[in-house]
């Protein structure tokens, strides 16, 4: 099988990182569905404590990402990852022993600050593998994350019991242990050689300021468009979509479970079936395809509402979730690869941190948007606006051949390494 052959051909360091990421996601899956249940049903606190903890955690990610980017460029991505995973370990362990609302909020902030280290993972992947195989790396990471977190959720569901509160504490401690294990694995077994080769250049970069990012208009354009696409897609998967469907009685809670299971299966299946396309497609074209597929997803969702309840509506939604999953796979093959292609080597951490911050802002803003519009009488209009936003991004990236060629977009001194033309991306894709 082509995918397995390509994964086996990846550098040993890259495969080690992918395995460590799967262990981390397995731990996350153990507790992923249970925050509201744990806080409200087990600890007896108001449900708003759980929702506030989720929001505060997202804010923590926004605050933690710039530090991760700075530390990545000043020291190394491994240093940043180990520090942030250690912080995240402490926060998750604090969940296990929290009894009061403020304790959950404080723990959530610590967890978020630790999770902000995701920028370091992007830099480690990019430094560990040749540029031409990064689409394989990032799509494999997406598939591994879905499979591992899904397996973790199944294990957690089998072990958790409201009548036995200690089971929840055990799951949170198990997640904390997985974070600590991954931090140890990176500290002991990960050394990205590209970082040491650029050590002198990295330390000479004006204190690792984020001004280098702000002086790169082409990257800022990609960041704005990518942020808009993320806000209109991923950020609505667990907020806008469930709110819209449940408030209209289109599906039950069990129906939602089926849809999310379909999403997970389709993400894994799409990488297997589309692997040859994903590893050759141009970065910008991959993002364009993702935006088009997400546009189709949001156009199908209101049709399910019109179909009423029952199997007809569920069938339409299964197709929509399948499209959403394929879009996720194309997005993973395009956007993170594009971010790292645009990043100068001595600022890779800050570029990944800027992207991570935009993603986190989407997760913060998405639930607020959903709460304000998705469940009310303007819910269908809200869904249509999401489709329009995705279509706008698809058009912009579809025309990217023109604005990627324009040197005026790039004022960064390292533009020779920070701008990728469509022609160079094509050559990398087929090499």
TrEMBL record:
<feature type="transmembrane region" description="Helical">
    <location>
        <begin position="212"/>
        <end position="235"/>
    </location>
</feature>
<dbReference type="InterPro" id="IPR020846">
    <property type="entry name" value="MFS_dom"/>
</dbReference>
<keyword id="KW-0812">Transmembrane</keyword>
<feature type="transmembrane region" description="Helical">
    <location>
        <begin position="104"/>
        <end position="124"/>
    </location>
</feature>
<feature type="transmembrane region" description="Helical">
    <location>
        <begin position="17"/>
        <end position="41"/>
    </location>
</feature>
<keyword id="KW-0813">Transport</keyword>
<feature type="transmembrane region" description="Helical">
    <location>
        <begin position="255"/>
        <end position="274"/>
    </location>
</feature>
<keyword id="KW-0472">Membrane</keyword>
<feature type="transmembrane region" description="Helical">
    <location>
        <begin position="136"/>
        <end position="159"/>
    </location>
</feature>
<feature type="transmembrane region" description="Helical">
    <location>
        <begin position="311"/>
        <end position="333"/>
    </location>
</feature>
<dbReference type="Pfam" id="PF07690">
    <property type="entry name" value="MFS_1"/>
</dbReference>
<dbReference type="InterPro" id="IPR036259">
    <property type="entry name" value="MFS_trans_sf"/>
</dbReference>
<feature type="transmembrane region" description="Helical">
    <location>
        <begin position="171"/>
        <end position="191"/>
    </location>
</feature>
<feature type="transmembrane region" description="Helical">
    <location>
        <begin position="80"/>
        <end position="98"/>
    </location>
</feature>
<feature type="transmembrane region" description="Helical">
    <location>
        <begin position="286"/>
        <end position="305"/>
    </location>
</feature>
<dbReference type="InterPro" id="IPR011701">
    <property type="entry name" value="MFS"/>
</dbReference>
<dbReference type="InterPro" id="IPR050171">
    <property type="entry name" value="MFS_Transporters"/>
</dbReference>
<feature type="transmembrane region" description="Helical">
    <location>
        <begin position="381"/>
        <end position="399"/>
    </location>
</feature>
<protein>
    <submittedName>
        <fullName>MFS transporter</fullName>
    </submittedName>
</protein>
<keyword id="KW-1133">Transmembrane helix</keyword>
<feature type="transmembrane region" description="Helical">
    <location>
        <begin position="354"/>
        <end position="375"/>
    </location>
</feature>
<feature type="transmembrane region" description="Helical">
    <location>
        <begin position="47"/>
        <end position="68"/>
    </location>
</feature>
<keyword id="KW-1003">Cell membrane</keyword>
<feature type="domain" description="Major facilitator superfamily (MFS) profile">
    <location>
        <begin position="1"/>
        <end position="402"/>
    </location>
</feature>
